[in-house]
Design a protein that fits this description.
It is a single chain. This protein has two domains: 40 residues; 176 residues, no CATH class. 17% of the residues lie in helices and 51% in strands. It is built from two helices and 13 strands; from the N terminus they run H-E-E-E-E-E-E-E-E-E-E-E-E-E-H. Strands 1, 2, 6, 8, 9, 11 and 13 form a seven-stranded antiparallel sheet that branches. A six-stranded antiparallel sheet has the order 3-4-5-12-7-10, with no helix packed on it. It is flat.
């Protein structure tokens, strides 16, 4: 019973402290050639994602190409999406393609290395050609928000050594047909901040412990 109680306490402590910044990307790609053959690829990851259908750009292209490559983390990352429905010399329609992704980074961060207040620069970047749509992008930090659909920086004046909430949300996607295509790159850099795991308040631990009491009492009766 003592070992069981110790395990339950450790589980409650882990549940209360597991609050570090979280990053997640979910995406999919689809390709259909003129003969009706289809290809699809999808996935979800907290670190990296590589999805593709067709022939990679730069190779002899006979069936179009669509791809999504991402590498994300708490403080920096990117998503690179590309679709080309025509041949390499853009003279023949080959496929119909769609691609999309949702990216999020959320958690508590802190400005360190000083006292009082300081400026922090949170950067987002976007590059795209003539075709393709701008993503829907919002960055919120310490109550300030930035529409980052075309990239940009959020500059905030915040206290040092103070936990502050950050949330990045990006949704992007499109389709390519009739011998067209697009290439869109989105990146972010929050390296001026340190992601943190807040120390649980005594009240939080008490509530978790209270929730476990019925389980402990039931196990005692069985023992």
């Amino acid at each position: 019973m003592k070992k069981l109680l110790a395990v339950l306490f450790l589980l409650s402590l882990a549940a209360a402290t597991n609050a570090k910044a979280d990053s997640l990307i979910t995406g999919s790609v689809f390709n259909r050639d003129l003969s009706g053959n289809t290809c699809s690829d999808s996935g979800s990851s907290s670190s990296g994602l590589s999805l593709s259908c067709g022939t990679p750009s730069g190779s002899f292209n006979t069936n179009g190409n669509v791809s999504l490559v991402a590498n994300i983390g708490d403080t920096s990352g990117y998503a690179d999406e590309e679709a080309q429905s025509g041949s390499d010399n853009h003279d023949t329609e080959l496929t119909y393609e769609t691609e999309s992704y949702d990216l999020s980074v959320t958690g508590m961060y802190m400005l360190t290395g000083g006292t009082g207040y300081g400026y922090v620069d949170l950067s987002t970047s976007l590059s795209k050609g003539t075709l393709g749509s701008f993503p829907q992008c919002t960055l919120t930090f310490d109550g300030q928000s930035l529409d980052c659909s075309v990239g940009g920086d959020l500059i905030a004046y915040v206290p040092y050594n103070t936990p502050l909430s950050l949330d990045l949300s990006v949704t992007s996607g499109g389709d390519a047909e009739y011998n067209d295509g697009y290439h869109i790159f989105f990146g972010y850099d929050f390296s001026a901040l340190t992601p943190i795991t807040p120390t649980p308040e005594p009240t939080s631990l008490l509530l978790i412990g209270t929730g476990l009491l019925p389980l402990v009492q039931r196990l005692r009766r069985r023992g």
